[in-house]
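Here's my example:
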Amino acid sequence: VDRWWWNGTSGGIVGCAAYVLIVASFHDLLVRRTGAPRFSWIGTLFVLLNPSLLYLQTTAMTEPVLLACLVASVNELDRWNDTSSRRALIASAILGALAVGSRYDGWFYVLLATPTVAWLAFQGCRDAAGLTKKWWRDAALFAAPSAIMVGAWLLFNWAYFGDPLEFQRGVWSAQSQQAAIAAQGGAATGGHLITSLWYYAGATALCAGFILTLLAAAGTIAFFARMRHVGPTPLLLLSALPFNVLALWARQSVIQLPWTQPAGFLNVRYGVMMVPGLAAMAILGAVLTARTGPAWRKGMLLASLVGVTAQVGLFAVAWPAGAGALREGVAIRDGDRRQQRASDWLAAHYDGGRVLVDEAVNISPRSRIALKNRVYRWTWELGTKALAAPENDVDWVVVDSHHADGVVARAIRGREPFNNRFDRAFEDDGLAIWRRR
């Protein structure tokens, strides 16, 4: 539904559903693990009121979808650990597979969760005398849906691109995109593990908030000191940390922060993956410390309440600069004024027909050009035809001379039939819009 795409409703429907699932699953997990409703609600507020997550759930980005599947999967896995319910394990496995299908962070989650399931099942076998259950069956049951999801993705890449690893090494893969950024000096983390950790920690602090990050660091210490009273499943909420650090180190990802070189707001939103995990560590650490005595309980409850209030207040004072994902969205929106002006011009002058768009140009949905009328190099069958003879198959061409080696620029450069049928109707510092006469 193009109208829903133009005004953002379509992305918001999915994002809102994901947001509700994140908050509900996270609260359920905290209630079960703490047995303290007040602490659980305070922890939930860290997630519920996080502006980066609130912003992303209004968009068509995949981060809320992954977080919803991941948090719900961890919640069901924790329920299984408490009750040995086969239904909970199957639900966790299916949700884990959906996480695998949404983002590659989900792959890493399942890689960490599968041995966790095996270990917990093994411990259950040891604790129950005469129990003949095989621990590896539970691990296989959990991993099977994700394995099917990975296999389907490899098969799709092989059938569609002729290479099962196209997503990893193809022209549109993260690796290829990061290589282009690295060539411009924008990837300082490659091969440097500590630098990668520092960059991701910065993105996490910008999205989750510096106060929550500090509280979580302190809570993690208390959590590990008394983990036998809680169990390891909440740690799976932090699976995004090793994944993103390793991705930065292996040159599969790039993050730019306001204080890095080069400075910027690039992929800062990746830090939002840590919000539920940090909130869990902060509250679980406080609850475990509170069990020391009644005075500690009151002190930890007050400190947690002050912490969430101070964090929300800090976001409000530093608005929107203090909300990492929102600040990144604003930076992208304002990043190329030429493209904004071109989109505005099209909104006023577009009167129908197919538009061949340079892959380096982002034409805003506010131009009101339907998705079916947008033609890119990757558009099935039509993209190849339009590039071979644009004068025959499209009515508009959007090209950026700054991207002189782009396929659209090459397709129209010096082409007489194209020049005979098209006029340049808009030009702004190398970004041009050609219109059929």
In short: The mean pLDDT is 89. Strands lie at 355-357, 374-375, 396-400, 422-428, 431-436. Residues 358 and 399 are 5 Å apart (CA to CA).
